[in-house]
Amino acid sequence: MDARVHQVTMVVRDQAASLEFYVKKVGFETKTDFTSPGGSRWVSVGPRGQDLELALFQLGSAVDPTQRQWAQGWAPAKAPPIVLRVSDCKATYEELRGRGVVFVQPPVEYPWGISATFGDPDGNLFSLHQPPASRAWS
Predict the structure, then answer these.
(1) pLDDT by residue (tens digit) across 88-105?
(2) Residue 137: CB partners within 8 Å, gap ≥ 6?
(3) Main-chain dihedrals φ then ψ at residue 25, nearest 5 degrees
(4) Minimal CA–CA distance to 137: which of 5, 6, 15, 35?
(5) Does the pTM exceed 0.85?
(6) Is there a contact between 76 and 11 (Cβ–Cβ < 8 Å)?
């Protein structure tokens, strides 16, 4: 598999307060701050000059309907999927599936790219993410 860790999602109780903490106190920069037409806000921060992003997921935020069952246990200090950016999500999905990796979600196309999610033997989740050709909101 040709992938690199791009994003780690952290569940937070107060997204705005967390954003302020990471930017003003830790010195990270805002990488993404996007509010969807439905009102959900996606915010990520990270070290300046690095690709790594910490996504600050607001506790109780709406998730895609395909994620509702496994997102129920998300809480601060408990980890949702670690995101691996890949150049071809569908090909990587087939490659890993061929090696016996069990996916909880096959590739799905969203406005923000293509994503598929698998679990490790302990139930830790990883999402493969292929960004869209143009990231208008990055």
Answers:
(1) 999 999 999 999 999 999
(2) 32, 34, 112
(3) -95, -40
(4) 35
(5) no
(6) yes
- Return the closest-CA partner of residue 119 out of 87, 97, 88, 92: 97
Nearby residues of 101 by Cβ (< 8 Å), 6 or more positions away: 118
Q: What tokens does 35 get?
A: 């509010």
For the record, the structure tokens of 54 come out as 């910490």
Phi, psi of 17 (to 5 degrees): -65, -40
Strand 53-58 to strand 4-12: parallel, antiparallel, or no bridges (unpaired)?
A: parallel
What residue ranges define each of the domains in the chain, with the CATH number in brackets?
A: 4-130 (3.10.180.10)
Terminal Cα distance for the chain, rounded: 25
